[in-house]
Amino acid sequence: MTLAYENWLTARRWYAGRGRDLIDVTEALVTPLRDDLDLVLLDARYTDGSVDRYQVVIRWGGAPVDEAHADVATIGDDGGRTAYDALFDPDASRHLLALVASSETVGPLRFLAEPGAALPLDAPTRVIGAEQSNTSVVFGQDAIFKLFRRVTPGVNPDIELNRVLARASNGHVARLLGSIETDLGGEPYALGMLTAFAAGSTEGWDMATASVRDGFTDFTAESRLLGEAVATVHRTLAAELGSEPREFPLETLLGRLGLIANAVPRVAQYADVIEERYRGLAGTSFPVQRVHGDLHLGQVLRTPQAWLVIDFEGEPGQPLPERRRPDSPVRDVAGVLRSYEYAAFQRLVGHGDDEALAAAARQWVDGNAAAFCDGYAAAAGADPRATGELLAAYELDKAIYEAGYEARYRPDWLPIPMASIARLLS
């Protein structure tokens, strides 16, 4: 192939090279899956010496795979043929599913079906998340395939933890059905994963913000059930993968504080007090285990039967070893509590002087945070609130991260994490 990938790649939302000078994009691996279908790994090289590896499945054809997605799906032309992103072609997507179903090996690629998985080979398809960090294809009402766009060497935590939880019969994750994996240069790469599709589900963030929008209606029963679900996931991960004591990660939290305080003056004014809080936990040991690592209300789904925890990929932008590093379960609890704060106080963006609205938001947050922790304690046998300063430190760390994001991308939202930092320090 002699495709020029640069224009198409750099226009994708999942392209991570913005802010760096691109030298070129070259093919690192091309694996034919059939005459008109190739799985391609691309290396994007930058002037700072860094290299990012991306994945695309190409369908070669003479007509758009889908007029509605022609712009995002059309990669380019090569000798009279047009290359399209194959995920937008139902026939090509079903071919990938068939390879997984039969656990085929194609060149260096391993298509793996999980034991007992029944896959909907003839189901209609639809693409979701076309411009998110990964791209997913839903097959009917039964399965969803996620293709990882930016691929890195190492064990993928999303596949790894979903596999552990599914094989332990944990009812609070979507069952893992299959994966696509390979080895390059002696290192493993995860290319995609297939899970059961949670038909009829609603994202936790959508449910919470609907409650807020409808006048801060009662959401505490759902929050308690969510706390129970998260605790059950934590218990299974600890039972299957173990736990151990580890000292408070002082340097990690101080490193984030320093970076963001340097960029956000409003955080800098609290830096000394926050550092003092963190140093108060130095040398203290806490149980650590595998956790979600980036848990919030957008990472949970409510089905008619239960809450499901999804997307175990860890904190975005972190190196893979960091995303797989054991941490305190309190990290995930803090993420959910921060998410309640956002769900409620986003109502005040542009209305910061509305004291009645602020009071209603505070009451809603406190009630749901308490209900979540009550449910967690009931299922885990330990109340996360009993960790005291540890929970506060993880909430602070999350709020500091949020402040850095909001200062850069949504300045009008910066008061949300800043108010939380002030409250947590008071």
From TrEMBL:
Matching InterPro entries: Aminoglycoside_PTrfase, Kinase-like_dom_sf, Mak_N_cap
Catalytic activities: D-maltose + ATP = alpha-maltose 1-phosphate + ADP + H(+)
Molecular-function annotations in GO: ATP binding; kinase activity
UniProt enzyme class: transferase
EC assignment: 2.7.1.175
Subunit structure: Monomer.
Name of the protein in its database record: Maltokinase
Organism from which the protein derives: Mycolicibacterium grossiae
